[in-house]
Amino acid sequence: MKLTDISNDVNEWFNGTGPSADVVISSRIRLARNLAGCKFLSRCSDSQKAEILEKLKAVLMSLDLGDKVSYLSIDKAPLLERNFLVERHLISRNHAYGKGPRGVVIAHREFFTAMINEEDHLRLQVLKGGLQLANCYEQVNRVDDMIEQQVEYAFSPKYGYLTACPTNLGTGIRISVMLHLPALKMTNQIQKFLNAAKDLGLAVRGLFGEGTEATGDFYQLSNQVTLGISEQEIIRKFEQTVIPEIVDYEHQARQKLLKSDISVLDDKIARAMALLKSAHLISSQEALLLLSHLRLGVNMHEHMGASTPGIESIYALGAGRDASSTVSIRTINRLFMLTLPAHLQINYGQTLEPSDRDALRAKIIRSSLGSQS
């Protein structure tokens, strides 16, 4: 796989479709596994890591996933390519910047990746757009079963799957839902969400997972407990209770903005569109924030309806009536992805200084939003 084959568009889980997609960007389920009879990676030499890598690579490349798969050697990849894969959510930051032999197997439609020698010997993940945790689990569990027919996992009848980090012990499952919560942020209710998540024993991270802050009003919500609870229980709790309640809170916050802060909402969306269509220099962080506001306006128009009081004025001010046929959630999501630093440079064909990236980012956004400047 050449990275340029996928770098110029969004993957299928980030295209703005799926259940509750106005708030839920994507669903991901990840499984952590280790090989029986092998040391955890922190105790392995490079030669032992290389043996694990070759064994798991051969198994993964032999599987029938219903899609073509490619292998990339992460330890040999340039930094820019590794950063691109992190932006694409195909590998973790830990995998990108780790040490020793390590690699990743990627399905060409990007719904599935398998990181070899990340923190554990193997980390499988399946991603889908919107709230589709049960579907993610069905798919990743099927792949996990196929792998287990060829290798033996480290497993304890008492503790379940043995993992390098105790927080993954048991099922080894990590559920992650990416949420877009601009209205909760605008109505100063985001701290309530963060506190509630903490009380429920859930982890809240930024756009790129552990160690990152929320940018562009994106938040990743994950489980922290994997021991003593089944995969089905965790998924049921997330899919039927936790996430629907958060979606409802965000919808209520959007209604509140319409009823009591329509001028503020109008102004934020109008300013976002104006700046995005006219700026000649724009940073990645500013672009994410402005695109977040624009995404809110388009989503409110599409999901609440133009007849709802305030919506028509929001859309007219924010997107512009002449842009209604081109400004879509897919267009905005595409800009979110393609204007990230590594994406810009991969598509441009060379590394760029920050100021040159800011200029190129602004040019791409102006072109995509139909600006003549």
CATH superfamily of the largest domain: Glutamine synthetase/guanido kinase, catalytic domain
Cα shape = globular
Strand order, sheet with most strands: 2-3-4-5-1-8-10-9
Q: Tell me the structural class.
A: alpha+beta
Strand content: 5-15%
Total strands: 10
Number of domains: 2
Describe the overall structure:
This protein has 373 residues and is α+β, with helices and mostly antiparallel strands. The protein folds into two domains: 3-252, Creatine Kinase, Chain A, domain 2; 261-368, no CATH class. Helix content is 45%, strand content 15%. It has helices at 46-61, 79-87, 93-96, 133-148, 182-186, 190-199, 231-260, 262-278, 284-304, 311-318, 329-338, 341-348, 354-368, and strands at residues 24-33, 69-73, 103-107, 112-116, 122-129, 155-156, 160-161, 173-180, 202-205, 218-223. The strands form two sheets. An eight-stranded antiparallel β-sheet has the order 2-3-4-5-1-8-10-9, covered by helices on one side. Strands 6-7 form a two-stranded antiparallel ribbon. A hairpin with a 5-residue loop joins strand 4 and strand 5 (122-129). The longest helix has 30 residues, at 231-260. Mean pLDDT is 89; it is low at 306-310 and 317-325.
